[in-house]
C-alpha cells in the first residue's frame, strides 16, 4: 500500500474554535531529584490484545530507558473525547494521549495544550510513514501528533450470511445494497448492524452519502469553514432518509451500542446475528474480540461503500481516519522518544497484529494478514482521495451536533432539512 493519500479536510488551521477551553497549564511528566521520569498515557483499548500491546510497549520502553516509567490508562473509546476536554479545562493533561487529528486536535492545540513535534520525529520513521498519515495531525503547518493506524471505512460483512441469503456479488451501487437487504430479510437475517446509541456510527452513514453527493472541494473546505449551504449536503441527508425507509438496520438499532459486548453492532456481526456493518478498519479487531472464541471471524470480508447516482463525489473516494498519539505541551522529551519507539517497524508490526488493523508505517503492512483488510487496503491505494471523518474534521461541537441530528432523523424525530439547519446553526455558533 502506498502512503500517497492526502486526508482531505485534515490539515486544520489553528484558528478553529477552542470549545471554550481555558489556557491554564497542567502538571505533566513528573521527575524526581534523581532524574527519573513518570509519564501518564491515555489510550482507548480496554480489553484483549490491544490493551496488552500498550502495556507491553510501555514495559519495553522502560527496559531500554530505566529512568522512564509510563503509567498506562485505558479509556472506553466513547468516553475519550469528553475526558480529554475535561483534562484541557482543568489543566491536568496526560503526557501522552490518543488523538484523531482534524479540528478535534486543532481545538486542543489552540488551547496551548499540545506539544509541537515538528523536528522531533525521527527522520527514518517519517520516511517509512510517508507524508499522508501525518496530514491529519498538521495544524497551521506544524506537526502535533504521531500516526499509528490508517483507518479507511466501508462495509464489513459475513460471507456465510451472504451465501445463505443467495447474494453472489458484492453490492456496488446503493440500489444493489437495497436488493441485498431485501434478500437478507427474506432469509430471516438482520441485514445491517448499527450502533446508533453512540451516535457516530449512525452518522457514518450520512458521511458516506455526503462523500458520494458532494465534490472533493466542498468536503475539503470543512477544514477552514463549516459551510453546509451547498445543496449536496441536503441531498445526502435525503438519500440517507430514503435508504432508511427500507428498514435495513437491526431491530433496536437506536439503543444498540457500537463496540461494547455481544449485543453491540460489532457483536451482532461477530456472532452472525447481522450480516453487515459500516465501519472503519478497526472493526476487524473489535469483531474478533467479540466472537465466541475471541478470534478473528473466519468469514469476514469487506466491500467499499456503494456508489450513488447523481452526485459530484468521484467514484472510489473513501472516508476514514488516522489514529495517532500526541504529547501534552508540558510533557518531557521522553514523550516524543516513546512515540518514535512505538513507530518503528517492529512495534508497528506488533500493532497491526494486536489491533487487526492497518499500521501507519508502510514498512509494517506486511504484518496485515486478515483477509477482510486486503480488499480495503487495495481500495485505499486506488482511491482518488480519502476524506477525514466529518465529525473529526469539524471538531467536537459541530461534529456532535451533526452526529446527534443524524440519529434524530433516523429515529423519525427530525428530517433532512432539520439536520442541515441544526448543523448550520452549530457551525454559526463556532
From TrEMBL:
Keyword NAD among UniProt keywords: no
Signal sequence bounds: 1-23
Pfam families linked: SBP_bac_1
Transmembrane segments: none
Coiled-coil portions: none
InterPro entries on file: Bact_solute-bd_prot1 (IPR050490), SBP (IPR006059)
UniProt KW keywords: Signal
Domain of life assignment: Bacteria
Protein name (Swiss-Prot/TrEMBL): Extracellular solute-binding protein
Organism: Microbacterium bovistercoris
